[in-house]
Amino acid sequence: MTLSYFSEFFKLCFHITHRNWIVFKKDFIANISPTVADPALIMVSLGLGLGSYVTNVDGMTYMQFLAPGLTIATALFTSFFESSYGFYVRMTFENVFKAMLTTPMGVTEIVVGEMIWVGLKGAVMAVGVGVVLALFGLMQNPWLIPLLSVVGFIVAIPCGAMGLLSSAMVRNINQFQTVYSFVIAPLYFLSGIFFPIEEMAPAVRTLADFFPLIHGVRMAQAIFWQKEILSTFVIHGGILVVQSLVICAIAFNRIQKRLVT
Amino acid sequence: MIQARSLEKAFGEFKAVNNISIEVKKGECFGLLGPNGAGKSTFIGMTYGNVQRTSGELSVFDLDPKTQSREIKKRLGVVTQDNALDESLSVYENMMIYCAFLGIPRSERKDRVDELLDYMNLSHKKMAPIQTLSGGMKRRLVFVRALLGKPELLILDEPTTGLDPAVRHLLWGKVKELHQAGTTILLTTHYMHEAEVLCDRLVIMNQGQVTAEGSPQQLIQQTAPGFVGIFGLEGKIKIQALAEKQEDWHLHEDSSGIYLRTQTLKDLTGIHSEHGLKPLQIRPSNLEDVFLKITGQELSNDA
Predict the structure, then answer these.
(1) To probe the interface with A, which of B93, B101, B131 has the most A CB atoms within 10 Å?
(2) Between B69, B80, B149, which is nearest A99 by CB?
(3) What is the pTM for the complete model shown?
(4) E strands along chain B, which residues?
(5) ipTM of the complex model
(6) CA atoms of B59 and B80, how far apart (whole Å)
(7) How far apart are CA A41 and CA A58, in angstroms?
(8) In this structure, how many other beta carbons lie within 10 angstroms of the beta carbon of residue A79?
(9) What is the pLDDT of residues A152-176, one digit of tens each?
(10) What is the DSSP string of A93-123?
């Protein structure tokens, strides 16, 4: 394990990330539209529509309450779909990893490269949505926007690893629907994006804490509302890092078993 | 170049590779011949560390694929059984990204890709999406991909399966050129004729084991020498009666006819002149007959 070994390792990881970027930019508009359009749609329908009935949530307008969570939800969706459907198609239908593994590339490099990619994508998406929402005056202090990239990154990694894990475990592509319905959608709705989670039954709160999204939402709320940023980052950021490590390790283990026999 | 001793790979109870010992020497074209499921691809996967051996010894370039696969993979190229081309990228992008994987310096990549696309007659498809390529073009592109790193060892895993004769002959020509230029080649195939055309030495594998080893000519001379006449099934009873009297005549039957192998050509022409049975075809015995003799079962006929 010399220095040159690690320099080669990171170069190979970078090539995987770079490959995904080349593919992504080919269909830039199509790839970016759901992440921009979905939060916009929700802001209009829920924020303006429902928000005219719900006028006070923890002392804020409903739009103000909704903004940080939606920003982070884009990181969840972009990373999960990339590493579930996207990765699965490359692994099973196109078999591209089989060919990559005949080059100096190894499974570790592939997984790390994919994770860096979803992390970067999560960071960029979170900042992008954050900028738009800040223009609507939903952010106390727009100078804090760069911090959203950190949150986007460390939310996208465990969520992406959940996608990878499901790629290794599903028996056909339709089974992602089940993962979506029973894991991703509940996460989205029960992670304190749409209402203060403190109102929920303790069992639901405990369950939500177990998954990464809620911690990212807490961090984004701290940024948007400019409240207790440092302590939130330490506590929830720390939890996210631990969750990332655990989920990535499990996902790597499963993917390796699929690719190397 | 490759040394395997008592090599085994088990998937649960099933032994895909069962105690094989093989040596591939520098500069030779070595064939692994056998039906589907014989263990050929499993062996190949073990050479670059994508399949982990269960027991036995294996070294490639005197390195251990279990622990030094990255070093090994820098020095070999693989024509994979599935094309496994990246459908999201164009021909050129596919090759450029593989140059990057192989650590080829940025300044050399473009020339290397152009040169090899030209070598495989694919220059006109440089910017094409992968989906627009025909089966033969995709296969040629996989050859380009395998050659990007100027490999010392070229592994061909069923390189011509499913291709039309024109493409097959083109690829055989390229393999021969590479072999003559000094590249060591490890080839798997279930086409007997392909092995006979390309290989200096080969092993016949069946059910995970090596059942015979030698040059194509040696194997034919030792195991199934002589000539083969193929007769229509209507002559079956007569030929069986004749063959019973001759110890060194060998009969085999399949849906297309009766195969009779004799030691001399005269034996076969005699059947026509003396017994009025006209053979559909007469040919010298080949590796297919060797395989039939060894395993008692038939292999692919469509080579």
Answers:
(1) B101
(2) B80
(3) 0.88
(4) 2-11, 14-24, 29-33, 55-60, 76-79, 153-157, 184-189, 201-206, 209-214, 227-231, 250-254, 257-262, 281-284
(5) 0.87
(6) 20
(7) 23
(8) 31
(9) 999 999 999 999 999 999 999 999 9
(10) IS-HHHHHTTTT--HHHHHHHHHHHHHHHHH
